[in-house]
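Researcher: Structure prediction, please.
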Amino acid sequence: MYRIAILLFAASLGVNEDLLEASRTGDLAAVQALIAKGAALETKTPYGQTPLYVAAMNGREDVVRFLLEKGANPDVHDTFYKASMLDFVLQRKHYGVAKMLIRKSAANPDEVLGSVTATGDADLVGAFLEAGKPSQAALDKTYEAALGRKQTEVAALLKKAGAHEPAPAFVVDVKTIEAYSGTYKSDQIPLDIKVFVKEGTLYMQATGQPEFALKAKSATQFEFTLAQVVVEFDSTSSFTLKQGGGSFKFKKAVTQ
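Model: Predicted structure follows.
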């Protein structure tokens, strides 16, 4: 009995590996046959990627459709990059697959909206808005970002979904923002940021990256909506930069 159990376990490992490979290459007939033989729908690679995950990231629409109909989970994250299935799909521009995943996903719409709209694909954004209901705050922020990227069709869809027009920039005295000018460094990350004023607007430029204009929310708080960056000055010689859940303290090293 023990020997039989070992043989059965080895056999199951074989069909599971075959299912992952067939899903990766888009062999629908093999996927269907392996599922019928008892291959595990949610079997995983060493990095936590399921058959649906590898099919989706490689744009295998027929296989994705079949696995979703079988009940495969579209909200899996891999364990190496910590990336969701949809993250990879959007990065690789498999928008047909993305639509299928979005319809089945239980993810928080607020956490996905920015990535979907950043693609600039109006059909995909429309499908997303039909499938989920982002919060007002998420709609408003994403709408402002779409306007900044000049994504006319996407912005129109967000507006139709209920997004509000962005508030005008807070007017800050030029002398106040000029006092922020300088080169800043952080003990947390090896990144120098130059802060300067151009045509009455506060700009930032990290080493090796393009400059970007900041929109004033108050005399001490500024935003760069496209990258979801918030900058809060606590004095004319230090600020905190917040992005993607991270918070980084910078201090002025060189005055302009």
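Model: Residues 110 and 135 are 6 Å apart (CA to CA).
Researcher: Thanks, that helps.
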